[in-house]
Design a protein that fits this description.
The structure holds two protein chains of two kinds.
Chain A (H helix, E strand, L loop, with lengths): L10 E2 L2 E2 L8 H16 L1 H15 L5 E3 L1 H7 L2 E6 L9 H14 L4 E6 L3 H13 L2 E7 H6 L1 H9 L3 E5 L6 H14 L4 E4 L9 H9 L1 H14 L6 E5 L4 H7 L9 E9 L10 H4 L1 E5 L2 E5 L24 H9 L2 E7 H15 L5 H7 L12 E6 L7 H8 L2
Parallel strand pairs in A: 4-14, 5-6, 5-8, 6-7, 9-10, 9-14, 10-13
Antiparallel strand pairs in A: 1-2, 3-4, 11-12
Helix pairs in contact in A: 2-4, 4-5, 4-9, 5-7, 9-11, 10-11, 14-15
Chain B lengths: L2 H6 L12 E7 L8 H10 L4 E5 L10 H13 L3 H7 L11 E4 L2 H7 L1 H11 L3 E3 L5 H14 L3 E2 L2 E2 L5 H10 L4 E4 L13 H11 L7 E4 L5 H7 L5 E4 L1 H10 L4 H8 L1
Parallel strand pairs in B: 1-2, 1-9, 2-3, 3-4, 4-5, 6-7, 7-8, 8-9
The chains are: A alpha/beta, B alpha/beta.
């Protein structure tokens, strides 16, 4: 049967692989040879699940959003990743990777962060384990995400500004990779999304797959069936989506809907809708769809949501798009902000702006009355208050 | 015969530093958009043995700040793949030195690998260094294309590369192996310690079929001498770019003479 999971070499169809300079080969190879074995070790599984339960607060609820469902005349469930410790799904992956790093004998952690959510999730698990943590963050992002910078510092991490290129997420990722080149033996790089060279996209997807594993069980309880008609998630690099889709990838009767950020409009020149605007290329060691010039220079994306502001998309998602398995919808800043405020008023939940993009599809994308649609509510909106305040003049 | 192979196989090179290969890297389109040809001509005139012409990229992962900045400046100046080929179209009328294009794989992929290689052959480019094109992908998908167009693909090894992999890289290589001196990005380290001498010694004792040229961390006569004690030659990039930043393109001879 055709599978939408990664093959042994880390390819999803034509996408993925490990396009890395030789300096990174030993690191990635060590990880590639060990990650599946370590994840199967009983002691690893036990510690991972224990921490997800007692520290992260899993399982997160699958909540039937009654008033939202009435409004759009379909059955909408929200997977409440916003209730995770640190405020988003990101911590599922950092818990997994810090345990992986320990098993590999690493004593120093590096990470990249855009808005700071992955940086906070990484600083959190490093504090938990007493491991040194360096987070690279674009100079511009440091200036506009001061609360998360403060959180990382309180958690004991060193935040290093990325001053090259556009001084945002892609440059922070470049700097983290350069750090890894310079520290090849003792350091583990905790990538925050399903991007980067093999085995990262597959490893991160597996750590995040707890989301769809829980959805299956919870839906069985609530609806008497494991499979919804649709799973909806926002996609920047695509880690929350990878987790929400994971156990449904090879279940054809479940529709997969990936929601990208259209920014100020797909063709406005200020957008992050990679599937619509990207072409096949190489970014951060992975062959995938990415936004680039005709000459192959990577371009700077834009979205009001810092977590969706990435010029590429994980190779799993590139394949879902190219193969037609996934339905891709892009949502503008304005529509996302309206949908975010809508959820506050209807359900009493303030969502992250990333997640608001997924919620915004219901205005135009109609579902049948008895369809069961699960939306992955990837994060809470606390971190976005200033954006909400500015946008709605609150 | 390919000019790189020819150069590396010259009989009876002079003794000492003078007999070692000096390869210089620069970013095409830097400091000014139209400096490319003059830099190549002056490097040859001043006795450099190999030239690596850097194709600028927006996200140069393996490079330190100096080459990041020259790359960014070159792109701002308006450099791109098609323009570089245009600048180089008559280069073989004036120089005979081996020329290598060095860059990241994505711009080559966007140009079209086959078209890119054909254009290189037409101009008289002898080889490519694409650090993020991995060995297995090269062998499976691109080796035949490179060979058809007479291009040598140069692979990197580092102090962390296993002996087994070094042998595989040696097998797949022609011309020379690019020996990265230490675990670093370009231009990062100053001087070589015992770790490097041990590594240079270890590689020299492996009896590889290809000569090795050392790159990363070579900036002056002293580091050039250390790097080439065991190896066939050495590459200077960041230090030359700094020289261009301070002095422009008028005293290239002055830079080369202080190395060798």
């Amino acid at each position: 049967m055709k599978s939408y999971h990664a093959d042994e070499r880390g390819y999803y169809g034509e996408f993925g692989g490990a396009f890395i300079p030789e300096m990174l080969y030993p690191n990635c190879e060590e990880l590639r040879q060990n990650y599946l074995g370590i994840m199967e070790e009983p002691s690893f599984k036990e510690e991972f699940h224990q921490l997800l339960k007692d520290y992260v607060g899993r399982p997160t609820p699958l909540y039937f959003a009654k008033r939202l469902s009435e409004k759009y005349n379909t059955k909408i469930y929200l997977k409440r990743e916003d209730l995770c410790h640190t405020g988003a799904h990101k911590v599922n992956n950092t818990i997994g990777q810090i345990l992986m790093a320990k098993k590999l004998g690493k004593n120093r952690i590096i990470a990249e962060t855009g808005a700071g959510q992955h940086g906070v999730a990484t600083a959190t698990v490093c504090a938990l384990m007493g491991i040194q943590c360096v987070v690279y963050m674009g100079e511009i992002d440091i200036a506009r995400q001061a609360p998360n910078v403060a959180r990382m510092k309180m958690l004991g991490a060193e935040v290093r500004p990325a001053t090259s290129g556009s001084k945002t997420l892609k440059d922070a990722t470049n700097e983290a990779i350069r750090d890894w080149i310079n520290n090849p033996v003792d350091t583990h790089y905790i990538i925050g999304s399903v991007v980067g060279p093999h085995p990262y996209p597959d490893m991160v997807a597996r750590f995040q797959s707890v989301i769809s594993e829980e959805i299956k069980n919870q839906l069985q309880e609530k609806e008497g069936r494991e499979n919804p008609d649709y799973v909806v998630a926002c996609v920047g690099g695509g880690s929350n989506a990878a987790g929400a889709f994971y156990h449904y990838l090879d279940v054809p009767e479940v529709g997969i809907i990936a929601v990208e950020a259209a920014g100020k409009g797909i063709h406005s020149g200020e957008s992050a809708a990679t599937s619509a605007l990207g072409k096949v290329g190489i970014i951060h060691g992975s062959k995938t769809l990415l936004m680039q010039t005709q000459d192959g220079q990577i371009t700077e994306p834009y979205s009001i949501s810092a977590g969706l502001d990435y010029p590429g998309v994980g190779p799993m998602h590139a394949h879902l798009y190219a193969s037609g398995r996934g339905e891709f919808i892009s949502i503008t800043d304005d529509d996302a902000m309206k949908a975010g405020l809508g959820l506050c008023k209807l359900e009493g939940i303030i969502p992250a702006i990333e997640s608001s993009h997924a919620l915004a599809i219901f205005e135009d994308r109609k579902f049948k009355e008895d369809d069961v649609v699960v939306v992955n509510l990837s994060g809470r909106g606390d971190k976005d208050l200033q954006n909400y305040i500015d946008y709605f003049k609150l | 015969m390919n000019r790189i192979k020819q150069k590396l196989q010259e009989d009876n090179p002079p003794a000492g530093r003078a007999g070692k290969i000096l390869s210089i890297y620069f970013s095409a389109g830097y400091p000014n958009l139209d400096d490319t040809v003059k830099i190549i001509q002056d490097l040859e005139k001043n006795g450099v043995d190999l030239i690596e012409i850097g194709l600028p990229f927006s996200d140069p992962l393996a490079d330190g700040p100096t080459i990041q900045e020259s790359s960014t400046a070159a792109l701002k100046n308006g450099m791109n793949t098609a323009l570089l080929f245009e600048q180089l179209k008559d280069i073989r009328k004036t120089v005979s030195i081996p020329l290598i294009l060095m860059g990241y794989f994505n711009p080559v992929l966007q140009y079209g690998v086959e078209e890119f290689c054909a254009k290189c052959e037409e101009i008289g480019i002898d080889g490519l260094i694409l650090p993020d094109l991995p060995l297995d992908v090269y062998k499976e998908e691109y080796e035949a294309i490179f060979k058809k167009h007479g291009l040598i693909n140069v692979f990197l090894i580092t102090p962390q590369t296993s002996d087994e992999r070094i042998k595989a890289i040696d097998d797949a290589s022609e011309g020379f192996i690019y020996m990265v001196s230490s675990a670093s990005t370009t231009g990062a380290k100053q001087g070589f310690g015992t770790e490097q001498s041990d590594y240079f010694e270890r590689i020299a004792n492996m009896d590889l079929k290809n000569p090795q040229i050392v790159g990363f961390g070579i900036s002056n006569a002293e580091t050039f001498e250390q790097a080439t004690k065991k190896a066939k030659g050495a590459i200077i990039g960041s230090a030359f770019i700094k020289h261009l930043t301070s002095n422009g393109v008028d005293d290239i001879g002055g830079f080369v003479k202080q190395i060798r």
